[in-house]
Amino acid sequence: MYQKTDTSIITALNKQLIQLSKLANDVNQILHDHKADLPDKVSSNLADLTDQLIKVAQQLAEREGQRTNLLALADIGQVINSSLDTDQVLQIVMDTIVRLTGAERGFLMLVDENGELATRLARNWEQESLEKDDEKLSRTIVNKVVTEGKPLLSTNAQEDPRFDGQESIAAYQLRSVLCVPFKSKEEVIGVIYADNRVRTGLFTTADRDLLVAFANQAAVAIENARLFESLRRALAETTELKNLMDNVFSSIASGVITTDLDEKIVLVNKMAEQILGYPAGQVLGKLFNESASPVTSYISPVLSTVLKEDRAVVGLEINPTLPVRGEIDLRCSISPLKDAESHTQGVAIVLDDLTEQHRLEAQRRLFGKMVSPLIIDQLDPDQLSLGGKRCQITCLFADIRGFTTFSERFEPEELVSILNRYLAAAADAVLAQQGTIDKYMGDAIMAWFNAPIPQPDHTLRAVKSALSIRESFAELRMELPSEAHLYFGVGIHFGEAVLGLVGSEKRIDYTAIGDSINTAKRIQENADQGHILISEAAYQNIKREVVAFPVDPILAKGKSKPIQVYQIDNISG
């Protein structure tokens, strides 16, 4: 509405200006044609009328220029209020200035991040961007405006005494020059520079004042656009940082939950969602103790203590029962969440799921009852696969004597308890020598040495295990009542066997198969109570290291020839 009203006023002023100009011309023509016929007073009055008409026309022309300038300023104001694109604002401002002042060229320069003036826009009267070769301007004039913070107008720079001796002004053939500063909070942030290298006296003080007004509005526009750009960059950086943090939290193997000072949940990562048993969207913004998760009853009291005392609680182990997974093992760390100034802003809860780790540890402990821990540490699970490997081993069978008669005198529970004590003693003796327990067979135990880790003295280790079993059983008989006294018989053989994982992917056994295993078992079956019998092959491996003597050969079931055996008395020396 404002722009439309101004346009109609200017149109009316133009019509009046045309009419006044025509009337002044008509009066001049009358004076020219009839001056001799007119009385002197009439001629004088007509001449005065002509002067007045010309003055009125000039005033109307000035008003028209003022209206045009005001309209241009209003347009710039609309641009400032409607656009936050710095380049768009600058281009519109520069094109308007060149059009209104009649400048040949216009430059807009801004102070960059290094504090240097840099040309942001260079336009000509055809509203085209200048080529690099045509961007030469007087740095003398620009620096003077920046230093003094005041506008500068020169109607003919070539003859202006202020620029005597300035080579750039002479070299660039500058004539009309107008330069005004951009100011933001009284600080010069740039300049608007306009010139004409052909005409002198092109710019007036009115043009200077107009350019100052433009510069004031443009400075506001530039600052707004810069602030907007800064905010946009900050938002982009914040968004990028948030995405990064989300990715980090999502990839963390631990559950992470944060709350504010009121114990309202602020953040829940993916792992915490699994542990809580609920999507994050269902608990965000809720009080932690109202999140309806099984873990809250364990953690809520600790969380309140952490906030109250401003200290961390680390390594809290809990065993909540989840609807889907059942009972799980968690290790929790609850600590104050602090900002850069070390002010507490809430609480960070870190949840580590130890369920699988505890399960594997239990399995390892169970496996450790069968294989020496020293051997377990040397095994590479990735190298284990279904199938067997042929190797030389020393096999040991130990059987409890008198167990059948013994079992008739005890209840099953007591029977198992006593049996386990004897079998545990035998197992400990084997594992102490880094042997591998293959299996328990009722009241017997089977073990071997030299696999899966080679042992140069494997046969001697087997004999030492047997001697340790003898000593352990003797100690047990001293502790137990006479009716619970049991003895053993041990058979040991050295030979070739196939060792490996036997079974399927779902159920496998690490075992030894071969005739040497059967031979060791047959020797054990023929050992008297408390005796340790070893085969000829085993004896040859350790004959200088043990005290032993030959006994009658064994006629073992399934063997075509008798088995020569030796009875171990002790280790020599």
Describe this structure in words.
- This protein is an alpha+beta fold and 573 residues long.
- The protein has four domains: 1-82; 83-234, Beta-Lactamase (2-Layer Sandwich); 252-357, Beta-Lactamase (2-Layer Sandwich), CATH 3.30.450; 369-571, Alpha-Beta Plaits (2-Layer Sandwich).
- 46% of the residues lie in helices and 26% in strands.
- It is built from 15 helices and 20 strands.
- It has helices spanning 2-34, 40-82, 86-101, 139-148, 167-171, 205-251, 270-276, 296-309, 355-368, 373-378, 403-407, 412-432, 458-479, 515-525, 536-542; strands at 105-111, 117-124, 152-154, 176-184, 187-196, 255-260, 265-268, 313-318, 321-322, 326-327, 330-338, 344-353, 387-401, 436-441, 444-449, 487-503, 508-513, 532-535, 546-554, 563-571.
- Strands 13, 14, 15, 16, 17, 18, 19 and 20 form an eight-stranded mixed sheet that branches. Strands 2-1-5-4-3 form a five-stranded antiparallel sheet, with helices on both faces.
- Helix 2 runs antiparallel to helix 3, helix 2 (40-82) runs parallel beside helix 6 and helix 12 runs antiparallel to helix 13 (458-479).
- The model is unreliable at 1-6 (pLDDT under 50).
